[in-house]
Amino acid sequence: MPVDHEFGGQHTELKLSIIEKYLRAFSSALQNKFSQLWYIDAFAGTGKRTVKVEARGEDLFDAEVPESVEQRRGSAQIAIDIRPPFHRLIFIESKQRYCNALRPPIVASGILRYSNPIG
């Protein structure tokens, strides 16, 4: 059963966009300078988040858009997707159900080790 992780607003969109740009630049610039690059996320969550997109009425240029719910990447999934990849990703999350939801994208990414000290 999917775990909804609903949070944030426009500031979250901006923050995650900045994080992604920074991580891309960081991993590219430093990949040959250090033997390993690590990423640590102390509030990893599920790797994605649920966002409610408000309905928008019809206007002169656009048709009406009904309210919808979208799944968007969170910081953990963004870090998993970064290329060149980090050598080690450390995700810290206190909620067991969020840890369980984060496991499939970690496994799908080809990251060889996964550990959850909580359970």
TrEMBL record:
Lineage: superkingdom: Bacteria
NCBIfam families associated with the record: tcm_partner (TIGR04474)
Name of the molecule in the record: Three-Cys-motif partner protein TcmP
Provenance organism: Bradyrhizobium diazoefficiens
